[in-house]
Design a protein that fits this description.
The structure holds two protein chains of two kinds. By secondary structure, chain A is of the alpha+beta class. By secondary structure, chain B is of the alpha+beta class. The chains are: A alpha+beta, B alpha+beta.
Chain lengths: ~750, ~190
């Protein structure tokens, strides 16, 4: 804990926006009350989450050192900041940046905080937020005060709340946009922050704005509330509004947002958002967290019924002047350049041309470009943040934004200045080329710091980046623009569903040992606001993933037709063939003494649990269960193939069968005579694994078992296209969970 | 003035030779063995960042790192927890922690002698801008403390002390001794 914490409170008294100051004071009191045992740990956990103070890996006071579990005894003893979360354990502080917009002073503030309270690094997330890691909860109020002094809040950055409102970072300068959505995104963010109608959600709620429908920048289709700029002509006058989508989301099972209305006039944007929030708070699931996002409510009600309820709710809302009072300003909102537009100078530094091609794009305003500052793994040092502040002051009116691809963009750079700006970036290690290219890999924190991480997404991303960088000049042009996105688990924080090459972490057993793997996800599309979602094809050991990238890209280069996108290539070639091309990589190493696969990228600890066994008897049982789980996984793949052929009924039925067979594999451990009767399998699975919580995921609880129970309950109903699509994802996650469950059981096969 | 959250960084002799792949298992072993006073918790790997914090062994009371800030490789200790005693006590604690870490790394067979102290350059920072803003006033107030500390450490007044006056940077000082020292000598000087 910092010696200066009390001093910061004094120093900044009267210098913060009043509402934020009150919030932070209240949080500080909550901290004291929790220390005195006067606030229950679960209540305190949600309190801190709603202020962006998140847990981090190993915060339960245990760490596996590769051989055994070490207990960590902190100075504060058994005091916790949430269930099973030790008070002194370092945590993560998330910082909201609405629409990703920052100024130079804010960059400098973030630099100071990264240095003084974290590990010297600020990390940009896939929601345009910042995260600081290894932060002490006792320091959080000082961090929040210093942020508030720079007009930044952490309020509702986590927890069951309205998360950061994201927006296309090119809004206002993009030649293809309908209009600049920035002021609307900022205004909605302000309106919903702390709004009483947004305080009783069962889960989080993520809004986003996009200036057009064809690019990916706003990712409307994967948001709870996705808004795309639209106009219409009314009596000869162009009127602004939004195409409104609801109920999208990635997560374990991704959902495409449904069209709520093709044109919502700006005057109706806030009241409708408020009405949606009220309906979500009132009707959304609260107990079962795995079905508490608004996408499930909309799926259950149907979009038409949901819309009807929302419109009824809208009628009941008391008028709020904030609904419209921002609109005049929003219509007149325009960023200004620091310097006049110009032309590119003829003389440029070495490396400039390659960087210019990948990292700049023309603005709709002649003579200006937007520059992308690529950050490896979304990380930037405190010194680089200060340098970036200097650069944006020198060349622009501090028009800088974060992106969902974990980079910065600097807007309004005069072409005249471009070589000088490149030199300034290059001098501080921010001049890497490859923005939006295959080397610009997106990765969530994964096992580095996230409690939910299964495999090392950042370790893999760093390795792929290094390899792709080394041969960047040889990379085929068609491959150059592919997107790689990596999540450490099924939760999709790395956006793996909308990548050309997506990966998410799972664990599998090889020779009786847990081995970090990644599911290879193909068929996703980044463009068109995340136009389509990929599906898992095969699980491959982490250490073989670079070879997966090598093979798939080589196959694409060799076999693509002219102009064919990777997604279209995957569809044409088919996943059966692509899976076959990778299957040897999934096999155990030929040399049984080769331990390469048994640790993850960047982490030499053996990826095993201390209770893993090697006994002969257990080995035989392992083989039988694994064999059957592998068969169930094949069935999921068959379902996927059927789905792609348009056979929704067959796909749904096969996915359901895969879950039953996966469950049966586990049930067999206790009852070798289990029959194929679905009712019997489900009943025994429930008794043996669900009621005993043996199948429960350490963090997701009974979520995956519920997939089976839901599928079984609905197994007599016909499968629509949407239903079979969701069921395939659920079946894959159920099988992944079955593997994990079996790993956890270790040698103890008596259930 | 009270100096807390002191960082000490010992500059390495041969920065280009260090293979971080070999360093990470060493840090994991240090965590497993809990070899220093205070809790050792985790490893943060920032090798991919230009002139960044390198690889950090995260602790509860303080972090140890092979740090490459400003493109200058060295072994750094960052004291996070508040420490009682005088400013000299706190400077000594941070220096001892950095020197002890460097001594182990120099002796670590897996690093094959890649990481060596350059014998002369040591940086000190105060990682708290409110206690020690990077200003002339702080410099005036803290310089006697720094001089006394380095005189003890180098057993002489033959060193140059410089400051980075960029007000946004952490307040600190760089000392360069005229005579080279080994890590063991400096540890002995601290303790005598």
């Amino acid at each position: 804990m910092k010696a200066s914490n009390a001093l910061w409170a004094e120093r900044l008294t009267g210098k913060l926006p009043e509402s934020l100051a009150r919030e932070i004071d209240a949080f500080e009191i909550e901290i004291e009350l929790r220390k005195q045992g006067k606030v229950e740990e679960r209540v305190f956990a949600e309190t801190r989450l709603r202020r962006g103070a998140y847990g981090q890996r190993c915060d339960n006071g245990q760490r596996h050192n590769g051989k055994n579990v070490q207990q960590i005894t902190y100075p504060s003893g058994s005091l916790t900041k949430g269930p099973n979360t030790m008070w002194d354990a370092p945590g993560m502080q998330r910082i909201k940046i609405p629409a990703g917009g920052l100024n130079a002073e804010q960059l400098e503030t973030l630099a100071e905080l990264a240095e003084e309270y974290s590990d010297g690094i600020a990390h940009i997330t896939t929601r345009q937020d910042f995260q600081l890691h290894y932060v002490q909860i006792d320091d959080a109020p000082s961090i929040m005060r210093r942020l508030a002094a720079a007009n930044i809040t952490t309020r509702e950055a986590c927890g069951n709340s309205v998360r950061n409102v994201t927006s296309c970072p090119y809004s206002g300068v993009c030649p293809d946009e309908t209009f600049d959505v920035t002021p609307y995104a900022r205004a909605l963010s302000k309106f919903l922050l702390g709004h009483p109608d947004c305080q009783n959600f069962g889960r989080k709620f993520k809004p986003s704005f996009s200036g057009c429908s064809q690019h990916a920048c706003g990712l409307a289709s994967l948001h709870d509330l996705g808004l795309i700029a639209a106009t219409r002509n009314e009596n000869g006058k162009e009127v602004r509004g939004f195409e409104m989508y609801v109920g999208g989301g990635l997560g374990a099972v991704p959902y495409h947002a449904k069209l709520f209305d093709s044109f919502v006039p700006v005057e109706e944007l806030f009241p409708l958002a408020q009405a949606i929030a009220r309906v979500f708070a009132r009707l959304g699931e609260k107990k079962n967290r795995s079905r508490a996002r608004i996408k499930f409510l909309i799926q259950d009600l149907g979009i038409e019924k949901f819309k009807e309820i929302v419109l009824e709710e809208r009628k009941t809302l008391p008028f709020d002047p904030r609904w419209t009072e921002y609109i005049k300003d929003a219509e007149q909102f325009a960023e200004a350049p620091l310097k006049p537009g110009g032309e590119l100078p003829l003389i440029a530094p070495v490396g400039f041309e390659r960087w210019r091609k990948s990292n700049t794009r023309a603005q709709k305003q002649a003579g200006y470009v937007v520059v992308t500052v690529t950050l490896p793994l979304g990380d930037i040092t405190a010194n680089q943040l200060r340098s970036l502040a200097d650069i944006v002051r020198r060349f622009t009116k501090e028009t800088v934004r974060t992106t969902v691809e974990q980079n910065f963009v600097i807007r309004w750079v005069s072409l005249n200045d471009l070589p000088e700006l490149y030199k300034a970036l290059e001098a501080v290690g921010l001049g890497d080329p490859g923005a939006g290219a295959i080397v610009d890999i997106v990765a969530c924190p994964g096992t580095d710091t996230c409690k939910l991480g299964i495999s090392s997404s950042r370790g893999l991303a760093a390795e792929l980046r290094k390899r792709l960088d080394e041969k960047s000049v040889e990379i085929d042009e068609s491959v150059e623009k592919l997107h790689i996105k990596i999540s450490g688990c099924f939760n999709s924080c790395g956006h793996h569903h909308v990548a050309d090459l997506g990966f998410y972490g799972v664990s599998r057993k090889i020779a009786g040992y847990a081995v970090p793997h990644f599911q290879v996800v193909l068929g996703g599309e980044w463009e068109h606001n995340g136009g389509s979602y990929g599906l898992a094809v095969v699980a491959i050991p982490s250490k073989h993933i670079p070879e997966v990238v090598e093979r798939l890209t080589a196959k694409y280069v060799a076999n693509r037709t002219k102009g064919e996108t990777f997604k279209d290539f995957v569809t044409r070639i088919g996943k059966v063939e692509l899976k076959a091309a990778l299957e040897d990589l999934a096999r155990p190493p030929a040399d049984p003494t080769d331990r390469t696969l048994f640790s993850d990228w960047g982490d030499p600890r053996e990826y095993t649990l201390g209770d893993m066994g090697t006994g002969e008897c257990a080995g035989e049982v392992v083989s039988a269960v694994e064999f059957e789980l592998a068969a169930a996984e094949r069935e999921v793949f068959e379902a996927e193939v059927a789905f792609e052929k348009g056979a929704a009924q067959q796909a749904g039925a096969t996915a359901y069968r895969a879950m039953l067979d996966g469950a049966k594999a586990l049930v067999k451990l206790a009852n070798p005579n289990i029959t194929d009767d679905p009712d019997r399998i489900v009943a025994e699975f429930r008794a043996l694994y669900y009621d005993t919580q043996k199948f429960w995921d350490p963090f997701a609880g009974g979520k995956f078992a519920n997939y089976l129970f839901d599928a079984h309950a609905k197994s007599n109903q016909p499968y629509t296209s949407d239903a079979s699509r969701y069921l395939i994802d659920e079946a894959q996650l159920f099988i992944d969970a079955a593997h994990s469950c079996y790993n956890r059981l270790g040698t103890s096969v008596s259930v | 003035m009270e100096l807390q959250h002191i960082n000490v960084k010992l500059i390495a002799r041969n920065p280009g030779d260090v293979d971080f792949d070999r360093l990470i298992p060493v840090f994991h072993e240090w965590i497993a063995g809990q070899i220093f006073p205070g809790l050792l918790l985790d490893i943060a790997d920032y090798r991919h960042v230009h002139a960044g914090p390198g690889v950090i062994l995260i602790g509860h009371e303080g972090d140890y790192s092979v740090d490459n800030t400003d493109g200058s490789l060295g072994v750094r200790y960052n004291r996070k927890a508040v420490l009682a005693g005088s400013n000299q006590d706190r400077l000594k604690q941070a220096a001892r922690a950095a020197l002890s870490a460097f001594e182990r790394l120099e002796a670590e067979s897996r690093l094959e002698g890649e990481l060596r102290f350059n014998g002369q350059e040591i940086e000190v920072f105060v990682n708290d801008r409110l206690l020690a803003p990077n200003s002339e006033a702080t410099r005036t107030a803290a310089e006697p403390e720094f001089r006394a500390f380095f005189e003890r450490l180098f057993r002489s007044r033959e060193f140059a002390l410089s400051h980075n006056s960029e007000p946004r940077r952490l307040f600190g000082a760089s000392a360069k001794s005229v005579h080279p020292f080994s890590v063991a000598q400096l540890l002995a000087n601290l303790d005598s």
